[in-house]
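Supplementary Note 3. Input sequence used for the single-chain structure prediction.
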Amino acid sequence: MIVDRFTTPRLSVHGWRRTLEDAPLRAALERALAGILTDPVLAHLPPSLQLHEAGGGIAGWIDARAAESEVLLVERREGGALVGLVLLAQGEEIQARRSLHIGYLLAESAWGQGLASELVSGLVAAVEGAGRLRLLGGVDRDNPASARVLQKAGFEIDPTLSTAELDMFVLERG
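The predicted structure, written as discrete structure tokens, is reproduced below.
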């Protein structure tokens, strides 16, 4: 794993593997995510990240994320409340540069406070020593706030990877 923990001034971010392995902690995570994975939070995410009750509800959603990517829990440093997730998926290596697809989501209660910008900037700083790395982040064209978050962290739109519905942002490191 390229990064499994980092902090920012207001956030503590760490992998969720130990949480998933501990039944009481997983149950608490499921309860917390039930309050975070609301329709507005999920609105701009791809179909694969939507919460479908037929797919096992929150527990099934967690299992699907754990199977396809590394997931980091985003908690407030003060009080430890869960406010979101970071999803990291290894992509193909191109010209001796590893690719890492990033995604994030924050609870509605955390919107409008600059936490998304702080989170993405913290992630970029955390991967600084990881060698040659290409970070990719897709943003639904109906979500300009997320596009601004990535741009503030140094990402640039790549028209060759973008589609009519999705802008793909890229940041080359190392």
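The radius of gyration is 16 Å. The helical segments are 17-21, 23-36, 39-42, 57-68, 115-126, 144-152.
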